[in-house]
Design a protein that fits this description.
This protein is of the alpha/beta class. Helices cover 41% and strands 15% of the residues. The chain has three domains: 159 residues, Phosphatidylinositol (PI) phosphodiesterase (TIM Barrel); 40 residues, no CATH class; 60 residues, no CATH class. A six-stranded parallel β-sheet has the order 1-2-3-4-5-6, with helices on one face. The longest helix has 24 residues.
Length: 278
């Protein structure tokens, strides 16, 4: 396989203005040809596209020389992530700092802040990449390109779906009884409602959280013995009529009653009244 030269890459970059190229100067080249010759040759070759290139190296003197000899962005590849190294790159102030993620201290402490941007390499999973992003990494470098892209696409689609739900669902009402449906209707009128959920379906049964104080319900009055909820509702009818006459009104109804032990279906006399919300 033919390996392209740096000059070939420069010709390619001339047609692709959206690309930023990171050009690494290897320590083996520096040892063989010397820093002055290698750095000067690289900068001269990059001249047509220098504004879209970043010269990087593990070798700090070579990076410093690139900064002095040409108007090109630089990046230093850290050998260690420690206080001594920090003093060096704070003095250099490169545009980029590269570091192996395994050299970073464990935990979720933020990466050191400065005018540089962090590029973390040897990243193999999306989980590690996302955790590094939370710590302040701007770029990740990986050899597992295809699996990483596939995992990222899946994650991005899920994140977009969650974001759409945030805009769609301003509130969720749990419970589909009369209280749940009533709350849902009130929220909808205020443009704050998008979903309601019940155990089975909406209005499938009586509301478990109903106090039965305002509307005890005729069904409860048929029970023998009369339920405590219905008794409380009847006892408070007058109270609600007195404090909120504009909200409630009496609704006459008939309940055929012969005796306490006679089922309502066999009764003949006029029975109770039901207090309803107007």
């Amino acid at each position: 396989m033919l390996i392209p030269t740096l000059a070939d890459v420069v010709e390619f970059l001339k047609e692709r203005h959206e690309i930023t190229a990171f050009v690494e100067i290897k320590r083996a080249s520096l040892r063989r040809f010397g820093r002055e010759q290698v750095v000067a040759r690289v900068l001269d070759t990059l001249k047509p596209v220098r504004s879209r290139c970043v010269v990087i190296s593990f070798d700090l003197p070579a990076v410093h020389m690139a900064r002095q000899h040409g108007s090109v962005a630089i990046g230093w590849v850290l050998g260690e992530y420690d206080g001594h190294t920090r003093l060096k790159f704070e003095a250099l102030k490169p545009e980029f700092l590269f570091c192996d993620h395994e050299k970073l201290p464990p935990g979720m402490d933020r990466l050191w802040l400065g005018p540089w941007r962090w590029a973390i390499y040897e990243v193999e999973t999306l989980e590690v990449a996302l955790s590094l992003a939370e710590r302040g990494a701007d770029f990740i470098e990986t050899m597992a390109v295809a699996p990483m892209i596939q995992a990222f696409v899946i994650w991005l689609r899920a994140a977009q779906a969650r974001d759409r739900m945030k805009h769609l669902l301003m509130s969720v009402v749990v419970g589909g009884g009369i209280h749940g449906v009533g709350v849902a209707r009130g929220c909808s009128g205020r443009r704050a409602f998008r979903a309601a959920a019940g155990k089975t379906s909406l209005a499938a049964g009586t509301s478990s959280r109903s106090s039965k104080l305002i509307h005890g319900g005729l069904a409860l009055s048929r029970e023998r013995p009369v339920s405590p909820g219905a008794q409380k509702a009847c006892a408070n009818d007058a109270f609600f009529l007195r404090i909120a006459p504009e909200l409630v009104q009496l609704k006459p109804s008939s309940c055929r009653v012969v005796s306490r032990d006679t089922p309502p279906s066999m009764a003949t006399a006029r029975g109770p009244v039901d207090l309803c919300i107007a």
